[in-house]
Design goal:
Layout (H helix, E strand, L loop, with lengths): L1 H35 L20 H5 L7 H17 L12 E3 L12 H14 L3 H10 L6 H13 L4 H18 L5 H13 L17 E6 L6 H14 L4 E5 L7 H12 L3 E3 L6 H14 L4 E5 L7 H15 L7 E7 L4 H13 L4 E5 L9 H9 L3 E5 L7 E3 L2 H8 L5
Parallel strand pairs: 2-5, 2-6, 3-4, 3-5, 6-7, 7-8
Antiparallel strand pairs: 1-4, 8-9
Length: 417
Amino acid sequence: MGSGSGIWLIVLGLVVAAAVLGLIVYGLAGRARRSGRGQPPRSAPAAGTAGGAGGVEADQAAGAAGPTAAAQTAGGERAEARQANGAGGLEPGGETEGVVAASGGEIEVPEAPASRLRRLRGRLAGSKSALGRALLAVLSRDQLTREDWDEFEETLLMADVGAAASEQILERVRAAMRVEGAGADPAATLRRELLAALETKASRTIADRGGQGAPGVILVVGVNGSGKTTTIGRLARLEVAAGNSVLLGAADTFRAAAADQLAAWGERVGVPVARGPEGSDPAAVAFDAVAAGIDRQIDTVIIDTAGRLHNKANLMAELEKIRRVAAKQAPITETLLVLDATTGQNGLTQARVFTEAVEVTGIVLTKLDGTAKGGIVIAVQRELGLPVKLVGLGEGPDDLAPFDEELFVDGLLGAKP
């Protein structure tokens, strides 16, 4: 009997031990489930995000199971940039919305650059520029008096050419007409001197490609209302039409819906947008946009910036910080200042403020249609020493084209394409 009791005690002990072991295993599994609840596995990031959002959509496309070496390096540089410059808020799981890829909707095909040039020249000529008409009306008179030349100069001034440039054009045209005498062609003489006034040694080419595998990084600055964000959307279309891959950085986090506006432009041509919520750190958004551009092997990254903050000093400090932090990833290859051509000489005051804060490399003149005073192109280049690189005419999505001085002058003088 003692032997049977011993066997039963052994069996009972084994059952109790198995039960305890089962409870321990179940408890550990439950803890693992609770700790991982609501978080995607590290090897399967959320679709449609990359870079600062913690996703690696580009890695998934390449068959990678986790962050690439480039992504890890970018993460380290991002942390370093935040520590050195105070940028923040774009870590995985933080406030960023990351690089949002365009949806699978119908993608538009932007108009080719060459076609834009022909169309914009025709639009300039069709506008029958008041400047060209007025200048030629004076030069076509039989005997040019002092009063005629005063009228000629006044016409240039009224067209926002600027005092110094107006005087120079006047003297050169008057000297040429005097030398050529009765056989002078007023239109040809005026065309030649206007072209001379627009001449610049600086390149008008957009530096949209980087070196050694880095993307071209274009920083776009300008006051709100100048057409800055719309210009970026149109520039993205121009780059796509030229065969470049593009990523947009929505670093204007101060203005409500600026990122949504940029995303809408990107959506139309299949261009992804790096963005964060309103009020997030613009420098961090710019930093992550360039990092994502490097990781995805993008040709051109275009970064939007704020056009207003609480005061001018605050804005200029923010722009300088964006440039400094973004450049930790790749050099800034172009800084474009967007000016509203209809503001005339007031635009030059705005331009000087921006050029003091960042190293502007070129000008984009928007709204250069029949309502603008075309002389502002000459004034901008002369006063700022910067080339006009792009001009916008009209309200269409492809109404942005590289600036061509001959096309522009022929348009002012009413020459048909």
